[in-house]
Amino acid sequence: MSEKETSHRPTVLIVDDEASIRDSLTMILEYEGYRVKEASGGAEALVRVGSRTPDAVLLDIKMPEMDGLAVLKAFRERGYEMPVLMITGHGDVDTAVEATRSGAFDFFEKPLQRDRVLLSLRNAVESFQLKRENRALRHQPDDLIGESSTMRRLRETIDRAAPTPATVLITGESGTGKELVARSIHRKSRRSDNTFVQVNCAAIPEELIESELFGHEKGSFTGAVRRQLGKFVVADGGTIFLDEIGDMSQRTQAKVLRVLQNGEVEPVGAATTVQVDVRVVAATHRDLEQEIADGNFREDLFYRLNVLPIRTPPLRERLEDVDLLVTYFLRRYAEANNYRSKEFNKDALEHLRSLPWKGNVRELKNLVERLLILSPGESVTSEDVMAAIGRGRAELSGALSAAKTLREFRETAERLFLIRKLEENGWNVTQTAQAIDTPRSNLYKKMEQYDIKRNESG
User: Fold this and answer.
1) What's the start-to-end Cα distance of the chain, in Å?
2) pLDDT tens digits for 238-266?
3) What's the pLDDT tens digit per position in 22-35?
4) Under 8 Å between Cβ of 315 and 360
5) Which one, out of 139, 216, 233, 385, has a CA that is 20 to 30 A from the CA of 403?
């Protein structure tokens, strides 16, 4: 995958004098879809940040010559605002607490816990982007591209729902733009001056989701070395978007129901509740009524969420929008990556309109970007489209025909399937696991089992 193809991914700078820790963190973060830079000391870190500011920094406290506190101070004195997450040894917790008072976003004790690092890092990157996004949110275009009757009705529904205080439940297949709808609702609401907070319920480990949503008190559980505000409190006065709420445990569902009923948030380990004023917009690709019948989702929460239901249509129900979407994705990707844009000829567009689009708009977006990069001419043809689609099929067919046993056949098919899905989702492990409906931990195990690495996407 080229530098240009990956330039949209968040960049993390790892600063640690221990090469083994840098290597371990690099492997984990790259699998999660981050771009990673490394520095073995403070002076090198300042040079790295000066050349291009990362989205976040993982910074060891104890380093020779220039320790982490001095590096953090130098970052802030030079005006760098990116979040810094400190890495500390067991005996340096007091120093780490001092670092948070000096502006560090969070800190971790060695040995590092992968899920906690990933969760806090994701929060740090989102928090860094949140200020910029919310300043511009009301002035951004909807990005809900399309002039079909289906899309016009969707925008009309959003316009009616947005000014009200009612809870919204967005349903639809993966890749149909549920997040775009949620952001549009916030942007057009009376809360648009306040915060929009997004939480992917499927991406947060079960043991951390209550702390993430509702916050926790210091000492409330192992590793709770400081008080943390939950997302509901952060979103006070604004909108919280609970994406993939159908993946939430019943225990957490009960606490969300309490917030919806009386606006009370109960942090983990707290003796009192916190009152918040938050509009809830939820989304899921699951059939919640079936989940209720199966005993997986609370019926009372469903009715609280489903006050204003909005369905995002699959692309196959609005194929007349394909031309506009192609033009939009071409322009946006070319501008973002300094590419020369191309046109799709009539036959290519007709071919695209004939496809089933099981991955919806997200699948179309990925294919358009691939064709912009790989098609040889100034204009994308129907042959280019067939070649881009057929490349994966040809690889699969060739590899499978070489298998000698049923087990080898199954393993080859599974390996190629995972590589293609990871490629479609920009090698973001969390997003890929969600798309193929498997736990993230299982996807990690499969990647290790089949020795799947990023550079295999071609």
Assistant:
1) 6
2) 999 999 999 999 989 999 999 999 999 98
3) 999 999 999 998 99
4) yes
5) 385
